[in-house]
Amino acid sequence: MSEQITPTIEVGTEVPLLEFTLTRTDLVRYAAASGDFNAIHHSDHAARQVELPGVVAHGMLTLGSSLRAVTDWLGVDRIASIGVRFSKPVVVPDDGVGAHLTVTGSVTEVADDQATIALETRCGDEKVLTAFTVGVRR
């Protein structure tokens, strides 16, 4: 029988770096799963009509993908709360490469039964998710 190792959660503990890519194919798959077929998520023309620079990722796809920084580290069952500000849209070019995102963060507060983790998601130099906090059960 193997023993599960619980990561140490103390103020200042860094969340393991998460890097991921979103492609136009990912957007189509997410649209099918979520039912969100808003044209800004698949048409450059539609995105530009509303003054976006191009097709943008679904906010909840960006958030859900970014949360893997915590769930891959601690497990999904430890999530108690989530707070976030969608600061900038994630533009996903139709170049076969997509948009590269990075998630960093650290534990900022520890209480008896819960800890708070502050995260930040960037796409290139742009902060796309800010005021991003995750409460986790200890």
From TrEMBL:
<dbReference type="InterPro" id="IPR029069">
    <property type="entry name" value="HotDog_dom_sf"/>
</dbReference>
<dbReference type="InterPro" id="IPR002539">
    <property type="entry name" value="MaoC-like_dom"/>
</dbReference>
<comment type="similarity">
    <text>Belongs to the enoyl-CoA hydratase/isomerase family.</text>
</comment>
<protein>
    <submittedName>
        <fullName>Dehydratase</fullName>
    </submittedName>
</protein>
<dbReference type="Pfam" id="PF01575">
    <property type="entry name" value="MaoC_dehydratas"/>
</dbReference>
<feature type="domain" description="MaoC-like">
    <location>
        <begin position="17"/>
        <end position="105"/>
    </location>
</feature>
